[in-house]
Amino acid sequence: MATASRLTNTGTFLVNNSFDEVSYSPASSGAYTYKNGVSTAVNTVSYSQDFTQWGATSQPVTKTGNATTAPDGSTTATLVVPTTSSGGQAINKGAGTAIITTTYTFSVYAKSAGYNFVRLSFGNTAGGGYAFFNLSTGAVGTVSVSPAYTTAISAVGNSWYRCSITFTTTVGGNINGDIYVQSADNQFNYAGNGTSGIYLWGAQFEQASTPTAYVATGATTSININNFARRVVSTGVEYVSGEFDEYTGNLV
Fold it and tell me: Is the overall model pTM greater than 0.85, yes or no?
């Protein structure tokens, strides 16, 4: 028996387990791109729900997995608590190699756990800049002038927000997704109190101009589509069946 949980009010579902048949439109769902028998998730950052696998920046923040209920109802959200030493309180993860003059979006679900701000940035060679998000009011805070970021924050229930930044690269190179725990807007270095932090879940890095349906990843960002059956009808709707670890799309 398959399970399905509504993540948003747009008709997006997360399903797993074994099922007879599921149909979806790959052009509109943005969930997977098929190439040579392998389905590569749009999400290019690994361990998208397990932030204990992410690195730290200038300070060794505390990361506690399975700390609270995530937006999908599972107990898979991570609590990130800053150190009591002054510095940039953040975690990061490599998201692949950016292509020059290409638009990327980095998003994450966040919830206050004592601190009310999260800052997102594209790190490393092809990135830069930042944007603050207020997890108390659901508003965008300070955004860097360069590079020019497009930002968004949307409430998804139970005090969770999906925050995102989008920009177009001017150079190529390796790129990271950086997530900073912030105690105030436009604040960069501070000492935490050792208990306050934020909850995180569902990071996604994708080649898109807006955040699309969330696709969870583990150690890898690809699955082999030879493990299940698929067919496409004349309308462009694709049907798949078999045993799935995880599938995200717009059910039709």
Answer: no
